[in-house]
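User: Sequence in, structure out. Go.
Assistant: Echoing your sequence, followed by the structure tokens.
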Amino acid sequence: MSELLFPLHVTASLSLAEVAEKTGIHIDTLRKKCKAGLIPGAFQVGGGGWRFKRKVLEEWWAGLGEDHRLRRRHSYERKG
């Protein structure tokens, strides 16, 4: 699989900041979606920090379709 299709590949789980950076989804938006149960593979650790199961998140991200992924990344890049 290409790096572009699966930008989230380094570890078995990822932090909220890592997912925000890789996907271009704002960290506050990610946090809200996690609390609402809208992101598969998201779970809380100890004091409430969010982590993401890498494989589950990759499947979800791939399922969004390339148009959606590119929109999110370009939107993030313009802000950053």
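User: And one key feature?
Assistant: Strands lie at 13-15, 42-45, 49-53.
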